[in-house]
Amino acid sequence: MRVDRYIFFIVFSVILLVAVLALRVMDWREQQDLLRPLTPRLGVTEAVLPPILPLEPIAGLDPERVALGERLFHDPRLSADMTVSCASCHDLAAGGADGRQFSLGIGGAVGAINAPTVFNSAYSLAQFWDGRAATLEEQVGEPLQSPIEMGATWSQVLGRLALDDDLAATFSRLYPDGLTAANLADAIATFERSLVTVNSRFDRYLRGDEAALNAQELVGYERFLSSGCASCHQGKLVGGNMYQRFGVLSDYFAGRPVSPSDLGRYNVTGKEEDRFVFKVPSLRNVAETAPYFHDGSVKTLKMAVSLMARYQLGHDLPADDIDAIVAFLKTLSGELPGAQQ
Ligand code: HEC
Ligand code: HEC
Q: Which of 60, 63, 159, 189 is most buried, with most CB under 10 Å away?
């Protein structure tokens, strides 16, 4: 009896051990598959990092809703005085941002935080620097109603658009309940999902085109990984998949007044540990979206990279490394999506 139980325990333990090992092996296989695009001749720390992956267009978007969203994105009737459209601050021919430190809203109102690009935003873990909108649909209502951006109300905008027979008919054709706030947000969000900038030189490199990057850009990619940038800027967007403090190793905000928008994710959660925490921005097309940082305070990519090293990694990088990283970042600029204009 005792022997029976003993054998039972041994058999049971062995089965458990085999099951655990099998799971680990599956896990490991999956990791290796993910890392395959990242293992050309660099042999650096990337093996432990979530890989940077090529961007893919988002499949299955209704082309008619995309087209309607595109129209609305450029439509100044979405603002109180009909002077400002989404495209005023997110110029698709200028990196999907406005090139200003702070945006200009209706009546020349000046914002308090730098406008990020709308390109590839569909792949972000949430919208806004502090992630306060969970979805692109949810995001739309905010600029529309913000007194310093479009300053409108939903009833004002919907009332106005309803007078446009052609637009109202398009809504009725594409949505069972026609022109509503939710459908307007859906159309714009659908258009935004089409704004994926595929086929950057770096993505071509990841897909196996070794000639897509020159020697300096390859060094930049290696330094980007080995200095630790990719511990925060990673995945499809080379960012956009986590929140991190700005000023991990040294206080970015020291010696200057702190504004409410500097508080970042604290404004959403109210938690002390979220003070100065921001969504790590995507570095896709970053060469097109100066000035940099949530406070739009930095004019050049070179300066942004050197400050990142100082504040996020705790050391200054040699000038050559900074130049190489900047050269690498420029290879992240993709093709403008065909759906725009
Ligand atoms: C007056 C300028 C202005 C207008 C008009 C404007 N935006 Fe923005 N947009 C901004 C700023 C500034 C932010 C960043 C705000 C923040 O993070 O708190 C932003 C953020 C966003 C984001 C989040 C991007 C990210 O990476 O987090 C999206 C998406 C977006 N806007 C889409 C739109 C759409 C759609 C419209 C039209 C309905 C619009 N914007 C109108 C200035 C503007
Ligand atoms: C600990 C996480 C972390 C590390 C490490 C890190 N970054 Fe960042 N990065 C951030 C955050 C957070 C921001 C947004 C800061 C802000 O404006 O509030 C940012 C912003 C940036 C920006 C500006 C983007 C824009 O659109 O304004 C660039 C460029 C950048 N990082 C490049 C780098 C490079 C290059 C490295 C390595 C030298 C690096 N980062 C290391 C978290 C990190």
A: 189
pTM score, whole prediction: 0.88
- Atom 37 in ligand 1: which residue has the minimum CA distance? 86
Bridge partners of 97, per DSSP, are 91
Closest by alpha carbon to 210, among 225, 198, 221? 221
Q: Measured between alpha carbons, how far apart are the two ends of the chain, in Å?
A: 80
The count of other CB atoms within 10 Å of the CB of residue 189 is: 20
Question: 301-338, pLDDT tens digit by residue?
Answer: 999 999 999 999 999 999 999 999 999 999 999 999 87
- 289 in ligand 2 pocket by Cβ < 6 Å? yes
Name the catalytic one among 70, 137, 149, 222.
149
Query: Binning pLDDT at 50, 70 and 90, where does residue 10 land?
Result: confident
- Ligand 2, atom 31: closest residue by C-alpha: 308
Where in the sequence is the domain holding 295, given as residue range(s)? 36-55+198-330
Q: Which tokens sit at 279?
A: 């969504």
Residue 104 sits in a domain whose CATH number is 1.10.760.10
What residue has token string 């970015």? 252
In this structure, what DSSP letter does residue 280 have?
Answer: P
Judge if 176 and 204 occupy the same domain.
no
Phi, psi of 91 (to 5 degrees): -75, 115
Q: Answer yes or no: is pLDDT of 253 > 80.
A: yes
Task: State whether 274 and 216 are in the same domain.
Answer: yes
Shortest CA distance to 261 belongs to which of 229, 217, 296, 234?
A: 296
Interacting residues of 44 by C-beta distance below 8 A, sequence separation 6+: 222, 225, 226
Is the residue at 108 inside a domain? yes
